[in-house]
Amino acid sequence: MSRLLILGAGIAGHTAAMHARRKLRRPHEVMVVSPNSRWNWIPSNIWVGTGVMTPDQVTFPLAPVYRRLGIPFIQARAVNIHPEGNPEEPRPHVVVEHTGGERAGQTERIYYDYLVNATGPKLNFDATPGLGPGGHSLSVCTWGHAAETAEVLKENIARMKKGEQRTFLIGTGHGLCTCQGAAFEYLFNVEFELRRQKVRDKARIIWISNEQELGDFGMGGMLIRRGGYITHSRVFTESLFTERRIRWITGAHIREVAPGQVRYETLEGEQKEQSFDFAMLLPPFAGVGLKAYDREGSDITDTLFAPNGFMKVDADYSTKPYEEWSPDDWPRTYQCPSYTNIFAVGIAFAPPHAISKPLFSPAGTPIFPTAPRTGMPSGVMARQVALNIADMIHGRAEGAVRTASMAHMGAACIASAGNGTLKGTAVSMTMYPIIPDFRKYPDTGRSLRYTTGEIGLAGHWVKHALHHAFIYKAKAKPFWRIVPE
Amino acid sequence: METTRKPYEQTYYPPVPTKFTRHMRTNLLWQLFRFLVINVKMLRMVRKH
User: What are the DSSP calls for A383-446, one per residue?
Assistant: First the structure.
């Protein structure tokens, strides 16, 4: 009997667990360890953050689903990996600390034959003094944060209804943030909600971001065919901001969030300040801080993990200038080079570099988006890794055969710009490939046939349909397999 | 609310949609058609995996 241990039960970990259980014959075992007791459809957190959805609409308890699927579930956080075992437990194992129930705080060793690291990110609010719900700004990264943010938004709307003017600052809280798309969605949903509440004239809304220009989204922007031109996403994004009367600050690294004020450095080297009454600023991401030890107990964390805490996989991590970046740098199988029974998927794997061009202020401060790993590619790589492991356990393959390189993968992204069955809108984007390939597409980096974008009510319907479809799938209800990753 | 596009400020330069373009974004018939188109585009992406 072999055991596949999956760390994390987010989009990537949960997808891997469901596919692995579907493919692995018993008595082979699939086990999941996650510090959270609930599954969260994170793309809908922006609607919790504006108060149009409740946390219960975007989450559900994991234990009953795993019980039904026959997957042992342990609510705990992984602390250490011992890929060679140690004198107490000779098999490869992970030390976990329970986070729920009567065993909360206790540690346990869990052995594995195959390990999938899908722990997601640590929300690194500490990178910027004063950033985050523990400081002076808000977040929508978790359903709990989003619910708190909705309450603060409600208070601000009440004050505006009494005639007060308020300044809303939304964007990224550090020079190396990613997931600008989530902040963008929240920005436009707040603007939509303020209009719906008829207080838009009392609000000054400002976007602040580490992108060099609007429309980068950590993807280096994208070029699409529109109106007889090949046009950059910057043009469409600036158009949308202008239409909704939102000011923007780009190329900004927030150094500090003080009460009612951020202090930031720009790519031009200026030190500036911006006051606010309401600030929703995303944190940068880091690895969750797993440590690794060899059989003798020596620390081998540097062997398994990059300095940012994400796990090294089959990518090319050699340092090279932007001009020499290649699609081949990106991982294909997500297999750890030093221990071939370990894989990392979703946000947990270390990207070889950013997608957007790295830029620095005159003082040397890096101010550019790091590489995003959104739901669709995370789900695809998780499925491929699960199927590879199932094949290896069954002896059908000696190594990881299926690939899921982001350089050969497309993505569809729906960014909400307002929630309403008849008045809502969303930006619908498709792109192929995710990682630009300037050898294949010399002028654009991506296929103009498959890279598209438009805004409209239809996008909102699609986003709502995806919300229900993915929660249905994650609950492993009948025919869940027909919902693609 | 800032209501005008002032010359030489950042919001002066980008294109803005006409009334017709804005209307079509929420026109039910047109958006039903776009809904089908977007779904086809997304399925094309899925098939490329």
Answer: HHHHHHHHHHHTTS-SS------TTS--EEEEEEEE--TTT-EEEEEEES-SS--TTTSTTTSS
